[in-house]
Write a structure and sequence with these properties.
The structure is a single chain. By secondary structure, this protein is α/β, with parallel strands linked by helices. About 30% of the residues lie in helices and about 30% in strands. The longest helix has 12 residues, at about 70-80. The chain starts with a strand and ends with a strand.
Length: about 190
């Protein structure tokens, strides 16, 4: 069964976006982008909401606007990943994507039983918050930036019960980011 991961950039005080929804503070340096490319190679399926789906559409036509070899490699890998998009407003999606036909738990259960190796990745704080609240996430991956936002979208949703995790990996990536990988203790 494939593990479900939640991976995002996060400020030192725990936010994925500032109070206005801006994430430009987390633009990756080349070394971090290369790390993201390598991690993306291991994504067997991706689940995201409308906003993250629309933000990632740039990779569908990268060859028209980008020349950087690392970006083009990311685009090639990204396009091949099967994606499930949760949206109340979209009526169609492009590329290797489909609109969700069931609730989040059901869609994740379907994707987890795929043949092969890799992980099922959840994108977007809102959808990930639902998965965290329903205890559907096996692993948490944070790229911690030395930036304090003072508010915004939290990486972890509020919870009345503790979330017990085990540190599985930590490393400095580039000159500013610390990568933390925690696994759920079950």
């Amino acid at each position: 069964m494939l593990p479900v991961i939640y991976s995002m950039s996060v400020s030192l005080d725990g936010f994925t976006a500032d109070s206005g929804g801006d994430i430009s503070w987390s633009a990756p340096e080349p070394e971090l982008f290369d790390f993201h490319v390598e991690q993306t190679r291991h994504i067997a399926a991706y689940v995201g909401g409308r906003r993250i789906y629309e933000d990632m559409l740039v990779w569908e036509t990268a060859e028209r606007t980008m020349t950087d070899p690392a970006q083009l490699e990311f685009a090639r890998i990204w396009r091949a990943i099967p994606k499930v998009v949760f949206s109340r407003t979209l009526t169609s999606v492009v590329g290797n994507a489909r609109l969700a036909t069931a609730d989040l738990a059901t869609e994740l259960a379907r994707l987890r039983t795929r043949d092969g190796d890799g992980v099922v990745s959840i994108g977007g704080s809102g959808l990930a918050a639902q998965a965290v609240a329903a205890d559907l996430v096996d692993e948490y991956r944070r790229f911690v930036y030395p930036t304090v936002l003072g508010g915004g979208t939290p990486y972890f949703p509020p919870s009345a019960t503790p979330l017990d995790l085990r540190l599985a990996e930590t490393r400095a990536v580039g000159s500013r980011v610390v990568y933390l990988r925690h696994q759920r203790i079950r």
